Amino acid sequence: MTLSLYDLAGNDERRRFSPYCWRTRLALAHKGLAVETIPWRFTDKEAIAPSGQTKVPVLVDDDEWIADSWTIAIHLERKYPERPSLFAGSQGLTKIYNSLADGLVASTFPFIALDILSVVHDKDVDYFRKSREEWVGKPLEDLVADRSSRIQGFRASLAPLRAVVAHQPFFGGDKPLYADYALFGPFQWARCASGLALLDEVGPLRGWFERMLDLFGGLGRHTPAY
Amino acid sequence: MTLSLYDLAGNDERRRFSPYCWRTRLALAHKGLAVETIPWRFTDKEAIAPSGQTKVPVLVDDDEWIADSWTIAIHLERKYPERPSLFAGSQGLTKIYNSLADGLVASTFPFIALDILSVVHDKDVDYFRKSREEWVGKPLEDLVADRSSRIQGFRASLAPLRAVVAHQPFFGGDKPLYADYALFGPFQWARCASGLALLDEVGPLRGWFERMLDLFGGLGRHTPAY
Fold first, then answer.
1. Is the CB of B88 less than 8 angstroms away from the CB of A91?
2. CB A92 to CB B172 under 8 A?
3. In the prediction, which pLDDT does B128 show?
4. Cβ of A171 and B95 within 8 Å?
5. I need a surface site. Which of A59, A161, B13, B48 has the fewest CB within 10 A?
6. Which of B88, B96, B163 sits opposite A164 (nearest CB)?
7. What is the pTM of this model?
């Protein structure tokens, strides 16, 4: 098999900062599948056109194009069932983690939006600002205003996550599962694309995040932090 | 085996409204275990003293006393492994549901606190008001003020849950698991102890809740609504 992944990169090609691509990177590593990652920028729409999607991650598995991180996870589980399960046998129970991670992307964005602008590729700067300001209806500068006063509220909202990894090393239990890879995405996004410390410096979630960065030979740690 | 469950009841003995006891009721039904439920009131501390706990649920399984809904779930899974699994094999993945349900109990309480007072047993009224007002540091009347203007925000916060059951019938997938029983608790609590419609009248979460009420011959539906 030959696997290629279109992976969002910054102006520094080594900076891979998509919260969705990270789900897929770790899922592939969990399955023990080697993959060639292709640096992709927001404006490289044509490169992934065969997938029918305009966003990454896009996986090319031999001749098959698969878009969307959740669809890719299901594809990997079905096509490589003999390799370690991403879902511990329960895709149903795992869906909530995808949903919670999507929510975290949304709630994290107002904190890091302006920082992201400083790491995207030069050719993406105008596109990123315009498209994101259309979504949120205000300048990115307004979005991040007084973020330091709001960060405590954000951290408090993480209580249900914190309570889990206070009692077990990973959301999957003793070992990480796709549940962990999904939740890792937004925190890795913030680590790579923002100077804001989204998590407390100590505590159960910080401990979990550091363990996640160590997985698979430090795969997550090797991409440059902000 | 003989199983007995101390189950929070209101002034109407048939009204069983603890969000934690409902986790256990449905877990026992999932395992196909018959149980005698013993109506219990907040002030009946002595009745459950052998458990070492002052709160319900408390399960008595033959001569063993077990307190705390999550501890009870793990006990049932270990003691009755030949019966349908509550966790689909992954206790690790299930923990988040317990944690999310605990969070829902906390965020729901300010909406229904005063209504609960009207359904508790006469002998519990003073205890309930005093203990809860000490927790929250204000009169229950203040807590529920302008709740109708806050309910939309609460419903919006349920988006990650809604997204899951928009795509599958239960949080467990095609069939309900402990994940569903944990999340059912706070909504059933509100149904039995408050006149406030916590959920939208239509939509994926409402559909899920109605399916939950139908389970096991309508076990959840048989307790009186507010």
1. no
2. yes
3. 98
4. yes
5. B13
6. B96
7. 0.96
